[in-house]
């Protein structure tokens, strides 16, 4: 397998203006007829090469004449085709045996499709690239009883009955689109319906399709859709453009959801919710994913990507938009803190590992591997920096320019930045480096306050360490937001955004009359690390007096991290005093800002801690974190208990104030579980819970502390929920994440459970994903058995679903910080994979880079 390079991009030699597709749906043998109107656009290109994968070619006709084709590595070649012609292709495909879940497949009883990034080539031979945009007409034919609903993109034109109990529907999408946005669904569902009237007064039919019996769980998704539609009009002046918007929930899906034009297909996990079965986090995620896919209608569909290297053009921008939306719907501070966690726990790790790549990758072997936290989340951070640099209005001007200039086109990240530049008359040439450079910049800070001159001097230095893909790094344009607060708490603070453009730069602040504490990177204004030796006293001042909640949380995390590292390093195992003083204060304030304080009381995760050092001692770090947790639990046991009781809610409602109280109450429980006298509290909390959030908080607390009560409650939970796959995923994940000596046999048991299936990505992620990503102790067992266990499973999974396998390997390729023994044990397993003869391209790319 060879890598494709961005630098080798060539415009397509042919265009397709219109395509008619006919699907005669059958489980193992679906006939696809594709009739395309093809035009040559580059007279130098004589042959037409089409992509195709796992297709049986039944026949091919050019202007009605059957034609021979030659096979290529990617598909077929038609030699010396006319300048303009009608191309008819008949292929056979096998949806029921398609477990890779790309192209046309069956999810439960329903036919559905997933074409992004390169799945359309599993449906018919085509120019499977996003810069070929065509108008689609689609006829779907299927059994009337099994598939009462026949759906495709756009508007329903006609429908009717056919022979042998079959029926058909004809759909037309008026907007030209790349084939990755094509979709078809045929099956039996329950349907929720609603309407939305756009700003300009057009009426849009909203339809949500869910598995039979799930209507009551669909309302939140539908409400979220209406909120997203209204928000995009109000915030960006963007209206929906078709008369119908359909969302279908399916159980078998490789990712979260897919923005197919007018026909979104969703992982049911991001649609279905009610109080009994879904957590507050589930409700939040549904709202955000529904919005994300909706926002793609403009950022992705109407304006699409020229090639897949430009993926962040639509994904980074759309994640930024869904983050803005979530911040408006819920608590902006908490939403932001959780994004920062994603960046530090996952993106920084990717950017310092073997798969490091810029948000616009320069080289790709398997495109599916680049739907990454870098392209999505760092991509969103890059858009956010533009927003910070240009301001709310400037950013909106840039968006307006981008959309109006490129509507209906397939464009590049450069086109986006150009629109931002042109609309604001700003030079963003240095900023463009964010698109081509990988790695996490480190900003070192030297800070001095001179009482006599009342000057505060900040010397900032930026340096990006070399990454696996790029040895040389250039300075970037980094917006560094700061807040200066008086250590005493008396007097005004100051907030500013510094523009760091050079490798080293000095910033001076006048009239700082009282000793200042400096909060750097407030709001996480750039995806960078900060190296700044602050003192506990200054950190405390930031926590107490800064106006930016993210900075306050961050200072808190830093203080606690420092304590954990101190414990991990010293043999005497004494705990520094400052976290104890801090927690005493936080607990006293808890009721005043429950949401923020809950986040502050949460100890930094192992993954976040790991990102702060070049080398980590897994056992010492886990031990130190645990020691601090127990100490804080015991020291404040009365306070945890009191607070927990004060936080009880009336009947469940997904409403901000309740959400915040539940979050804090969950944190209390997690500490209470570390103390002796907590069994009764936990048992009562489980028994009286009327919602999944509180129930799961109890189970998690018991799991983290390995309490015998865990098994008892889990049995009860299983009995209640064994018929509900999405809830069982929570049960699977709780078991798989439990850190105890017998965890590998637990995993084995889980995978032989009646509700487990290797064919369902949600089940696989609940069990093996939770184990590999979050069961730190079990996965990193010193004897290497955790790594071997994952590898054995990957070998099996790769043959079924390579996309999911390639995601699961992530924790095993990010091993550079581990001790030599563990590194060696990991390499041994990577070699096993490497030598496996039929390894997928997805896994091959990652394994090869990791070795
Ligand atoms: N744009 C969608 C990406 C996606 C996807 C990619 C590869 C394989 C399967 C997939 N399912 C969905 C999702 C999104 O970002 O909105
Ligand atoms: Zn997306």
UniProtKB/TrEMBL annotation:
Annotated Peptidase M1 alanyl aminopeptidase Ig-like fold domain residues: 439-533
Domain Aminopeptidase N-like N-terminal: 81-181
Domain Peptidase M1 alanyl aminopeptidase C-terminal intervals: 542-851
Cofactor(s), names only, from the UniProt record: Zn(2+)
Domain Peptidase M1 membrane alanine aminopeptidase: 221-431
Catalytic function, reaction form: Release of an N-terminal amino acid, Xaa-|-Yaa- from a peptide, amide or arylamide. Xaa is preferably Ala, but may be most amino acids including Pro (slow action). When a terminal hydrophobic residue is followed by a prolyl residue, the two may be released as an intact Xaa-Pro dipeptide
UniProt entry tagged with the keyword Cell inner membrane: no
InterPro entries: Aminopeptidase_N-like_N, Aminopeptidase_N-like_N_sf, PepN_Ig-like_sf, Peptidase_M1, Peptidase_M1_dom, Peptidase_M1_pepN, Peptidase_M1_pepN_C, Peptidase_M1_pepN_C_sf
EC numbers: 3.4.11.2
CDD domains given in the database record: M1_APN
Family stated for the protein in its record: Belongs to the peptidase M1 family.
Function: Aminopeptidase N is involved in the degradation of intracellular peptides generated by protein breakdown during normal growth as well as in response to nutrient starvation.
Designated name of the protein: Aminopeptidase N
Originating organism: Lacimicrobium alkaliphilum
């Amino acid at each position: 397998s060879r890598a494709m390079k961005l630098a080798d991009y060539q415009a397509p030699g042919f265009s397709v203006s219109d395509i008619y597709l006919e699907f005669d749906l059958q489980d193992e043998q679906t006939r696809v007829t594709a009739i395309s109107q093809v035009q040559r656009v580059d007279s130098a290109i004589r042959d037409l090469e089409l992509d195709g994968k796992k297709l049986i070619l039944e026949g091919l006709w050019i202007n009605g004449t059957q034609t021979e084709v030659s096979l290529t590595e990617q598909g077929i070649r038609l030699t010396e085709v006319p300048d303009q012609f009608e191309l008819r292709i008949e292929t056979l495909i096998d949806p029921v045996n398609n477990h890779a879940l790309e192209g046309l497949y069956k999810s439960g009883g329903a036919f559905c499709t997933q074409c992004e990034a390169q799945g359309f080539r599993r449906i018919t031979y085509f120019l499977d690239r996003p810069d070929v945009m065509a108008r689609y007409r689609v006829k779907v034919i299927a059994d009337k009883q099994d598939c009462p609903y026949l759906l495709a993109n756009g508007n329903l034109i006609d429908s009717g009955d056919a022979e042998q109990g079959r029926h058909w529907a004809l759909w037309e999408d008026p907007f030209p689109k790349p084939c990755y946005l094509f979709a078809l669904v045929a099956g039996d569902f329950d349907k929720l319906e609603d309407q939305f009237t756009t700003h300009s007064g057009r009426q849009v039919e909203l339809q949500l399709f869910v598995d039979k019996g799930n209507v009551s769980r669909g309302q939140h998704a539908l409400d979220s859709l209406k909120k997203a539609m209204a928000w995009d009009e109000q915030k960006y002046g963007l209206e929906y453009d078709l008369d119908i918007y359909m969302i279908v929930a399916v159980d078998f899906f490789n990712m979260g959801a897919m923005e197919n034009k007018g026909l979104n297909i969703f992982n049911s996990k991001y649609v279905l919710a009610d109080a009994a079965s879904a957590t507050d986090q589930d409700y939040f995620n549904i709202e955000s994913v529904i919005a994300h896919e909706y926002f793609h209608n403009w950022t992705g569909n109407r304006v699409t990507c020229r090639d897949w290297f430009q993926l962040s053009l639509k994904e980074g921008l759309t994640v930024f938009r869904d983050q803005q939306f979530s911040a408006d719907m819920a608590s902006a501070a908490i939403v932001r803190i959780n994004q920062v966690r994603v960046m530090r726990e996952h993106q920084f790790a990717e950017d310092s590992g073997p798969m490091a790549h810029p948000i616009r990758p320069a080289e790709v072997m398997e495109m599916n591997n680049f739907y990454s936290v870098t392209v999505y989340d760092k991509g969103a951070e890059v858009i956010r920096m533009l927003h910070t640099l240009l301001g709310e209005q400037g950013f909106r001007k840039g968006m307006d320019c981008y959309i109006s200039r490129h509507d209906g086109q397939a464009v590049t990240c450069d086109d986006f930045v150009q629109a931002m530049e042109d609309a604001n008359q700003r030079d963003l040439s240095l900023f463009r480096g964010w698109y081509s450079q990988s790695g996490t910049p480190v900003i070192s800070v030297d800070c001095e306050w001179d009482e006599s001159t009342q000057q505060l001097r900040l010397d900032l230095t930026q340096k990006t360490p070399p990454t696996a893909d790029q040895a040389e790094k250039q300075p970037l344009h980094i917006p560094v937001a700061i807040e200066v607060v008086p250590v005493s708490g008396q007097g005004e603070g100051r907030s500013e955004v510094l523009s760091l453009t050079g490798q080293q730069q000095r910033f001076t602040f006048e009239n700082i009359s009282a000793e200042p504490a400096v909060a750097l990177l407030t709001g996480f204004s750039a995806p960078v690390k900060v190296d700044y030796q602050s003192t506990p006293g200054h950190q405390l001042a930031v926590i107490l007096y800064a106006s930016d909640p993210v900075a306050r949380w961050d200072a808190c995390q830093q203080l606690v991290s420092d304590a954990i590292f101190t414990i991990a390093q010293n043999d005497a195992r004494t705990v520094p005093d400052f976290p104890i003083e801090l927690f005493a204060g936080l607990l006293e304030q808890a009721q005043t800002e429950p949401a923020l304080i809950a986040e502050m009381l949460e100890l930094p995760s192992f993954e976040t801690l790991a990102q702060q050092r070049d080398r980590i001692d897994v056992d010492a770090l886990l031990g130190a974190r645990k020691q601090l947790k127990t100490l804080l639990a015991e020291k404040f046991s009365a306070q945890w208990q009191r607070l927990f009781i004060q936080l009880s809610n009336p009947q469940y409602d997904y409403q901000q104030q309740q959400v915040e109280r539940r979050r804090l109450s969950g944190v209390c429980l997690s500490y209470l579980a570390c103390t002796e006298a907590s069994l009764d509290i936990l048992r009562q909390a489980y028994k009286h819970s009327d919602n999944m959030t509180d129930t799961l908080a109890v189970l998690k607390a018991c799991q983290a502390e390995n309490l015998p009560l865990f098994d008892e409650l889990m049995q009860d939970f299983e009995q209640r929920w064994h018929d509900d796959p999405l809830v069982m995923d929570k049960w699977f994940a709780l078991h798989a994440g439990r850190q105890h000596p017998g965890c590998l046999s637990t995993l084995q048991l889980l995978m032989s459970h009646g509700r487990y299936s290797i064919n369902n990505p949600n089940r696989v992620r609940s069990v093996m994903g939770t184990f590999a990503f979050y069961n730190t102790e079990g996965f990193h067992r010193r004897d290497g058995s955790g790594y071997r266990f994952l590898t054995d499973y990957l070998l099996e999974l790769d043959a079924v679903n390579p996309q999911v396998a390639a995601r699961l390997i992530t924790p095993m390729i990010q091993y550079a910080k581990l001790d030599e023994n563990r590194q060696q044990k990991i390499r041994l397993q990577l070699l096993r994979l490497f030598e496996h003869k039929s390894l997928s391209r997805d896994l091959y790319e990652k394994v090869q880079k990791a070795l």
